[in-house]
Amino acid sequence: MIETKIIPPAAGAYAYPLLIKQLLLSGVRYEPGREIVYADKLRYSYQTLNQRIRRLANALTAAGVKAGDTVALLDWDSHRYLECFFAVPMIGAVLHTVNIRLSAEQVLFTMNHAEDDLVLVHDDFLPLVEQLQGQLTTVKGYLQLTDETAAETCLPVVGEYEHLLAEAADQYAFPDFDENSVATLFYTTGTTGDPKGVYFTHRQLVLHTLNAVGTLGAYQGLPLLRSDDVYMPITPMFHVHAWGVPYVATLMGLKQVYPGRYEPNRLVQLYREEKVTFSHCVPTILQMILNCEAGKHSRFDGWKMLLGGSALTLGIASEASARGIQVHSGYGMSETCPVLCTTYLRADDLQQPMQDQLATRIKTGVPVPMVDLKIIDAEGNDVPHDGEALGEIVVRAPWLTQGYLKEPQKGAELWQGGWLHTGDMASIDARGGVEIKDRIKDVIKTGGEWISSLELESLISEHPAVMSVAVVGIVDEQWGERPMALVVCEPGHYLDRKLLEAHLQTFVERGRINKWAIPKQFKFVTEIPKTSVGKINKKLIREEEMS
Amino acid sequence: MIETKIIPPAAGAYAYPLLIKQLLLSGVRYEPGREIVYADKLRYSYQTLNQRIRRLANALTAAGVKAGDTVALLDWDSHRYLECFFAVPMIGAVLHTVNIRLSAEQVLFTMNHAEDDLVLVHDDFLPLVEQLQGQLTTVKGYLQLTDETAAETCLPVVGEYEHLLAEAADQYAFPDFDENSVATLFYTTGTTGDPKGVYFTHRQLVLHTLNAVGTLGAYQGLPLLRSDDVYMPITPMFHVHAWGVPYVATLMGLKQVYPGRYEPNRLVQLYREEKVTFSHCVPTILQMILNCEAGKHSRFDGWKMLLGGSALTLGIASEASARGIQVHSGYGMSETCPVLCTTYLRADDLQQPMQDQLATRIKTGVPVPMVDLKIIDAEGNDVPHDGEALGEIVVRAPWLTQGYLKEPQKGAELWQGGWLHTGDMASIDARGGVEIKDRIKDVIKTGGEWISSLELESLISEHPAVMSVAVVGIVDEQWGERPMALVVCEPGHYLDRKLLEAHLQTFVERGRINKWAIPKQFKFVTEIPKTSVGKINKKLIREEEMS
Fold this sequence. Notes:
Two copies of one chain form a homodimer.
Chain A: H1 25-30, E1 35-38, E2 42-45, H2 46-62, E3 70-74, H3 79-90, E4 94-97, H4 104-114, E5 118-122, H5 126-132, E6 141-145, E7 157-160, H6 161-167, E8 182-188, E9 196-201, H7 202-217, E10 230-231, H8 240-243, H9 245-252, E11 255-258, H10 264-274, E12 278-281, H11 283-291, E13 304-307, H12 314-322, E14 326-332, E15 339-342, H13 347-350, H14 354-361, E16 366-367, E17 372-376, E18 391-396, H15 408-414, E19 420-428, E20 434-439, E21 444-446, E22 449-451, H16 453-460, E23 466-476, E24 480-489, H17 497-509, E25 521-524, H18 538-546
Parallel strand pairs in A: 1-11, 3-4, 3-5, 4-8, 5-6, 6-7, 10-11, 12-13, 13-14, 24-25
Antiparallel strand pairs in A: 1-2, 8-9, 14-15, 15-16, 17-18, 18-19, 19-20, 21-22, 23-24
Helix pairs in contact in A: 2-3, 2-6, 7-9, 12-14
Pfam families (chains A, B): AMP-binding (PF00501), AMP-binding_C (PF13193)
Keywords (chains A, B): Ligase
Organism (chains A, B): Pseudomonas kielensis
């Protein structure tokens, strides 16, 4: 270790550990009267938010929660969720944001694995929790969350949220503690194995928030976040803290709108009634908003959107833009808190017509400040930034999960070589723009090179005979792997299969592709296997090919 | 200590200490071609900046600088200063930014007290350093900084800066080390005693920078900093890192203009030629810019300015605003890195005409995010936020000096009770606006209350017979202290002194002032004692009254 100059602090000097409670200081000073809105059910000021967080801390303490305990939350996106984002970590406990879209079996696994002590459960999820109750091995109590009239339940609840808050004292002296204390926990699901617990500390969340305020606020062109914006999340709060933006919005003192369930017509209505100006969502939700009953044929002027989670197509971006939405992209994952990259527009980009800007706006973007990001090959060597060569994205940043809960082996794999491995394959162009091309498990390793299965699919899908296509790598003695394509033909296409295969091979060859990247084999099928969430099940395809 | 959940990191997980080198990551990615300009002498890109910082690290290492050493810098505001802000701390050494405006005796004191190892000295300061050389007890080497042709010197210099950089390798693997390592050091001077060494760590500078990007970037109305702004500092880089903004500008990838010496006509010329859009300065400099040959009768459209250091009068703010300058205020001090408060304009403020906004814009502002700030009375109790009651500002923030170098007693006084004592007396209004009213040593403690000497001076100065006035507290058996006013009369004023005293007492009484706050004694003088920097020397006045 290098010997630098470290001076012990003067007597009395306050070391200032980075704690979530500090994110609350500024919003209420800037905008004490600004509103927090829960759909059409409740609205109150920042002054009330701060008071309610103190009341909630008292209610949780009365329910037996101590520092180091874990509090599970099953709720729709609401003011209560926001209050828990603060109050639970601020008393030194861990907030487990339960993924309510998992199967009952997976919810049970995560709650036992997290060792939840108290469970906050919305009426809508009472049937689920009642069903699991007998198998929850660590839970000591339940607290009921109700929108209108509390549902009947056989759970031994300590009381109802609003009722307990009303009864609780509105003062609470939030303690200081180690900034490396775990604040939040949630589970990420892959295609295989049990869900994995991803966790973030107070320090990490404070740093992610401070950096996001600058990144989102100081954009060239139209900044995504300014102090007069109105924020409504449309990625769920149980998933990586709604991308961390509720913390950002609270620090800035923005008006915040929590929509409850994500019903597209309802979201459109809230955009109009509450004058929402900033949201983040996945492309599928954007598409639903554009096409739903309330949204279709409508304009959405003044709505700035950060899109992420999966690739944004030019088609959706163009449609959204034509209807008044300012489109930006972000990139990150559960393990990265999540923000790693966002769209960055230079002065010359901004002088182009919007239609030309969209090519930049739909890409993964440029790494944000404090993020050290590179692409590496299978041997760990840096891959050139030529916009072509593929490498796995590995990152360092002050807000990355330091492992998976109680899974040291999986954590060590994630952090191989001191860099967090995203599993995403990308190129980086000369201007620093990152473009995700594939997942590493789906990339085809052939002739010492990596080929993106997604790029091949995109190329093949342009042929008029092809309705849908999936490309996977299959073992090849000479090349290591060779691509194989599964094709569903357009109905009414009668060309001989052998002839069509040759056609498609020539078609692919014209697309600036190396010889070894041309699929040697095309298989014509009536259906492509999909996973439960509608993605191509490449794992299954590979298994079937190998068996 | 509270028992929270702390999880050891997975094998290989990178802990990411907060280090200044990380502030360099993003600017060059966002804007590789953006320029760093040194007046009319040199301009280069961010790519070159990053390369030069690596060359400088090699040159410093070759000159014998090791981690833990201290490097002194005597230079005008330049690209070299910016490069040293990065390269010196990035190799683990401490950058001592020498205040070139101090007396030779004080410079000598600070350089010996800091235990400087290597001295980087601009040609213009060679005579000073040559004169001190024999008395510098720790210095092992000198490095010459030259704008054009190197001056002759008897100092044993290792070489000239540009020459050494040209010779040095352009790769350097900057090491990781403890984020609490000291990065920078400079001296603050009071009216009494030796200069005191104030120091900041890597962690503190990173946190100050991240917070400032958000604070300056996400303003309501016109944000002070966006990625297309052009930055030129007009507070010296030796003083609290030019308010930390060079780090902010570099992180964002802004065009930066370093003006060398602060000659008002030259600053106006640089504003015009380089299209500067953001600067920070003290009110005196702003006034000089408005009134200098090149500036008078000119407009300064598009120039946003953050004013601080001393109170901004409505007169100067109005003049600047009428000529196109966007005026904001900031508050902080050497010990606070410095930013604590900045102007915050709410939606209703922004709807007012600019002339009405100025009353808010010239005030101290609202504490920025992460700053915990309160006003307390002499017993340490909180003072109400009614816009009237005075208290001393005490603060906590993640970027406050943790003491004074080698002065544990003074450090403990600064941090009494776990809060940094600013020595500034202020009120806070119901809207959270802080307004500095006085220095605590100048405030008058009378009848159990604190009276601002500045407010009394302001009131008395409104009387037509008064040309200038100074108010100090003098010991009073009944009241503790009573105010005493020294008055210089307007020339041609012939009223009897006794009569004028009574007049002024009645005049003050009308100004909503408590009875005990009315100066019992007015002294009519021909001159008010001033310090070397032109401030009223209240210490001297009090001493003369007591003797």
